[in-house]
Automatic annotation (TrEMBL):
One GO cellular component term: plasma membrane
Transmembrane segments: 67-84, 96-118, 139-167, 219-240, 252-279, 299-316, 328-354, 435-456, 476-501, 507-530, 551-574, 594-619
Positions that bind Na(+): G73, V76, N80, S302, N334, L447, S451
Protein name: Transporter
SUPFAM superfamilies: SNF-like (SSF161070)
Organism: Photinus pyralis
GO MF annotations, alphabetized: amino acid:sodium symporter activity; glycine transmembrane transporter activity; L-amino acid transmembrane transporter activity; metal ion binding
Keyword Repeat included in the entry's annotation: no
Record's bilayer topology term: Multi-pass membrane protein
UniProt cross-references to Pfam families, sorted A to Z: SNF
Compartments where located: Membrane
Annotated keywords: Membrane, Metal-binding, Sodium, Symport, Transmembrane, Transmembrane helix, Transport
Superkingdom in the source lineage: Eukaryota
């Protein structure tokens, strides 16, 4: 029988992961190494235990449906409505679905399973998960939380704009249906642009000429922003106990609205034209590498990967939940929603294009009559002939438009331009326009709030992995966070608010999220270990991932991440970042370079999102900090290493301990009874048993 010695050490910093050792114990197994930690409220949690299902304080979903709707509401967001249709139309129509589904299988689903599975296994937020796998990886959780904070800041501004349009929809006629009188302020500005553009840039945003001239906050936007943050606060203030009830609306209502719009669109002239234009495959586009890059990027962002939210959602699941099935179902639902929304959007846009062609021709005729190019009663043939003979310089000078049906469809915008300019113009043409406007912006509110709730849950779950926040009231922490976000978000309520949002959207979440996702994939594949993660999935679901998953996790998905990251950095360096500034005299936007100080802020945001990863690694590797953050006491479990990481993990920080103190602990080891575990919260307490002879 082996003679066991017990050593009890109190450590204020991070814990040391046990190492796989090739030496065998007396029973043929590994040497006896057991680490026992003091958990919250004095509970004892053994590192040798399996799943972390023993935390009585962990929140849990009230049912499977609540979890499924929450993750659907988070994953299916505004991007499915206003970005995927644009990408599909610009990148080969139906042919774009080929790279989209390939990237979905090779990139989206594998990383989705990693985040959901590791969250369910460890029942921790992002910070706790990566700190548990290895303390040197704790920066991943901090980076994820930082990027989520930046994105949540501007994402709620989009919800703010939806609130403003929603309230203005209770008018008949709609306020963006007509221009002010030509003799009033803004009448000429509206006449040179369009009704919906004028309402967006002048009435809603009151846009300044550039980002350097922000002006004062617009009170109507400030009030809507306050309402948006109050709404988010009351939804997430009690965690999933409160937000879990709201998801029944935020997840299901958009599908009801999309179906209503689709049924209506099928009765409109031009719907078939829009659908044909949308899905006609242009296979030659598949030879363009940018199409594949767009597909990979869309899959990555449409799932909401690397925000920490999916890890948080998984942590609220029971240990034996079939997370593999959940990943497949959510992925199918996400892809279906994007395709279904595209069909709805372009069937409506087809109707708008057919309606706009005669109006466009009439505007061109009036301009040509004013210049005496054609007569008052010119026929269609005379008009077409005269238009064909006009030089391109004079065409631009007269501000004539290309009125062909294909051109009208190809000019479909993306993002806010699609929602607040193009689609609002289509709504005006519908009978009972206020009704369609109300349900459309209510749908956008549901989609936006669903994603915003998910991001806040991920961020709060990460914060509550830190002991100091665990002792605070969740409504208090949530309220302070929302208040800080509201105050910082006031910059988006100025005349330059739209330009600030463009900068945040271009820099805050792009590079940082990809770096976090790449690091997560490497951490699971090479540090936690593919074999161990596969074993975890098998224990939780009964399904054992095979060769495809190994190859994808180890090689294919990381390579795709590197391609996205590299191309993003190259495009940032080659193309000077720009925003579209509103020019009142021209009644249109003008591409404008971001000033140097704005780019400096953008670079700082990018660095804030990625530097925590190498900083935490270096600080903990070289023991630069004597006092470390107390991360979720009792959350550390046994983590096995792989051969490739054994050297990294054997280089442990034993110099941190005072060697002179060890004998006084060894004096207690002669007793047959285990030494009592210190119940103090001043540090983490564990007992290490080392077998003397093997």
């Amino acid at each position: 029988m082996a003679n066991a010695k017990s050593t009890e050490i109190t450590k204020n910093g991070h814990e040391l992961a046990p190492l796989n050792n090739t030496r065998q114990g007396p029973d043929g197994g590994r040497p006896g190494v057991t680490i026992v930690l003091q958990g919250p409220r004095g509970s004892i949690i053994s590192r040798g235990s399996g799943a972390a299902d023993q935390d009585p304080d962990r929140a849990a979903w009230s049912g499977k449906m609540q979890f499924f709707l929450s993750i659907i509401g988070y994953s299916v967001g505004l991007g499915n409505i206003w970005r995927f249709p644009y990408l599909c139309q610009q990148n080969g129509g139906g042919a774009f679905l080929i790279p989209f589904f390939i990237m979905l299988i090779l990139e989206g689903i594998p990383l989705f399973l990693i985040e959901l599975g590791i969250g369910q296994k460890m029942r921790l937020g992002s910070l706790g998960v990566w700190n548990t796998i290895h303390p040197w990886l704790g920066g991943i959780g901090i980076s994820s939380c930082t990027v989520t904070f930046f994105v949540a800041l501007y994402y709620n501004v989009i919800i703010t704009w939806c609130f403003y349009y929603f309230f203005n929809s209770f008018q008949s006629p709609l306020p963006w249906a007509s221009c002010p009188s030509i003799n009033t302020t803004g009448g000429l500005e509206c006449a040179t642009s369009s009704e919906t553009e004028y309402f967006w840039y002048r009435t809603t945003l009151d846009a300044s000429r550039s980002i350097t001239e922000p002006g004062l906050p617009k009170w109507w936007i400030v009030l809507c922003l306050l309402l948006a943050w109050l709404t988010v606060f009351f939804i997430v203030m009690k965690g999933i106990q409160s937000s879990g009830k709201v998801v029944y609306f935020t997840s299901l209502f958009p599908y009801i609205v999309l179906t209503i719009f689709f049924i209506k669109a099928l009765t409109l002239e031009g719907a078939g034209v829009g659908l044909t234009h949308m899905y006609t495959p242009k296979l030659e586009k598949l030879l363009d590498p940018r199409v594949w890059l767009d597909a990979a990027t869309q899959v990555f962002y449409s799932f909401g990967l690397a925000f920490g939210s999916i890890i948080a959602f998984g942590s609220y699941n029971p240990p034996k939940n079939n997370c593999f099935r959940d990943v497949i179902l959510v992925s199918i639902c996400n892809a279906f929603t994007a395709i279904y929304a595209s069909a709805v959007i372009f069937s409506i846009l087809g109707f708008m294009a057919v309606t706009n062609v005669p109006k466009c021709i009439e505007r061109n005729k009036l301009k040509m009559i004013a210049e005496e190019i054609i007569g008052q009663n010119a026929t269609e043939e005379i008009y077409n002939s005269a238009l064909a003979n006009i030089s391109s310089e004079r065409f631009d000078y007269l501000k004539l438009q290309n009125c062909s049906l294909s051109h009208q469809l190809e000019n479909a915008a993306e993002g806010t331009g699609l929602a607040f300019i193009v689609f609002t113009q289509a709504i005006v043409e519908l009978p009972w326009a206020p009704f369609w406007a109300i349900i459309f912006f209510l749908m956008l509110l549901a989609l936006g709030l669903g994603s915003q709730i998910g991001m806040l849950e991920g961020m709060l779950c990460t914060l509550f992995d830190i002991e100091i926040f665990k002792r605070m009231s969740k409504p208090l922490v949530t309220g302070v966070l929302c208040l800080v976000c509201f105050l910082l978000g006031l910059v988006f309520t100025t005349g330059a608010g739209g330009y600030w949002l463009k900068m945040f959207d271009a820099f805050a979440g792009t590079v940082g999220l990809v770096v976090v996702a790449f690091t997560e994939m490497v951490a699971i594949s090479y540090i936690y270990g593919c074999d161990k993660f596969i074993k975890d999935i098998y224990e939780m679901t009964g399904y054992k991932p095979g060769l495809f998953w190994r190859v994808t996790w180890r090689y294919l998905a990381p390579a795709i991440m590197l391609a996205i990251l590299g191309s993003s950095l190259v495009f940032m360096c080659i193309e000077h970042p720009q925003y579209h500034a509103w020019t009142p005299e021209l009644g249109q936007t003008t591409p404008t370079d971001f000033p140097g100080w704005a780019l400096a802020i953008a670079i700082l945001m990018v660095l804030a999102g990625i530097l925590p990863i190498p900083m935490v690694f270096l600080l903990r590797r070289y023991q630069c900090l004597k006092i470390d953050i107390n991360i979720h006491e009792g959350s550390i479990r046994r983590i096995d290493t792989t051969v490739s990481t054994k050297e990294m993990m054997t280089d442990v920080d034993m110099d941190e301990y005072d060697a002179d103190r060890l004998p006084e602990y060894r004096d207690n080891s002669d007793s047959d009874d285990d030494p009592p575990v210190n119940k103090s919260n001043n540090g983490k307490v564990f007992r290490m048993e080392v077998m003397d002879d093997y």
